[in-house]
Each structure stands twice: as C-alpha cells, then as structure tokens.
Design brief:
The structure is a single chain. The protein has one domain: Jelly Rolls. It has no helices and nine strands. The strands form two sheets. The protein has a five-stranded antiparallel sheet, with no helix packed on it.
C-alpha cells in the first residue's frame, strides 16, 4: 500500500514535497521524503512532518548546490542544512561544491521516536536560481 493513511503512518501520499511518505510491503514499512530547492539567500523549510505511532530508523542525505548543465557543471557554491526534532536542532550539515575541499554530499543517521515533529531547513551562500541542492530522508518504520 502506498501512502500513510493508516493508524501508524503519517498523512502524506507517496511523492515529493515536504512530508514523509510510507510504503508498506510484505518486507516491512519503508519511509522516505525528498526535496529539491533552488538556491536563495534565505533559510528555507524543505521538509516538515510528524511521525506516527512508530519508531523510524533512517538517514538524511544532503547534496550541496550543483549547477546541473553541461557547460557549467564545474561551478559550485556552499550550502547548509539544519535538522530539528521537536523544535531542537539535532544536526547542522554543510556542503561545499565550489572549492571541493569539503564533501558534496553529507549523510546523517537518525532514530525518531513516535509522534516526533521533524523540520529541515536549508540555506546557501548566494542566490543563484540555476543551482539546486537536495535533501532526502530514507528509512524503515517499526510499529
């Protein structure tokens, strides 16, 4: 079943956006959230969801600003990500695709308790609409 409309899941159907997606299979329940954001020079909320009655174990993946066209793929910038759990910052991630002396992709492992509010914000060093950065969450749900 796709979506999270049952008693242990959230409320977002499968897809992209700011919410958490649930995929229930015979192998277990998988969760995911995906978001891509163009660079703007302001803090932007990209994921915002509340878990249901389950424990969730997973990983965030933050990809720094990339200009995705053949003529400018070598261009880069600096991006940051803030992950909050129930309003408290639990992680600050930073990627540098300009100097390439830092990782372009950063991961963060996490365990969410039941009924936990998650908010994720990103920010960049400049406003360049042709650069995009991504934040995703993938994991497993245990009722």
């Amino acid at each position: 079943m796709l979506g999270g409309s049952n008693s242990v899941g959230g409320s977002n159907p499968s897809g992209t956006g700011t919410g958490l997606n649930y995929l229930r299979t015979n192998a277990g329940t998988f969760v995911s959230a995906y978001n891509t954001q163009s660079m703007i020079d302001a803090v932007t909320s990209v994921l915002n969801f509340e878990t249901g009655s389950e424990v969730i174990v997973g990983q965030f993946t933050f990809t720094g600003p990339i200009r995705f066209d053949a003529g400018n793929i070598s261009s880069g910038e600096i991006g940051g990500c803030q992950i909050l759990m129930n309003g408290e910052t639990i992680a600050l991630l930073k990627c540098d695709t300009a100097q390439e002396d830092m990782p372009t992709v950063v991961t963060f492992d996490v365990v969410f308790s039941p009924y936990t509010r998650i908010e994720c914000n990103i920010v960049n060093a400049a406003e360049i609409a042709t650069f995009n950065q991504t934040l995703s969450f993938t994991g497993r749900s245990y009722a």
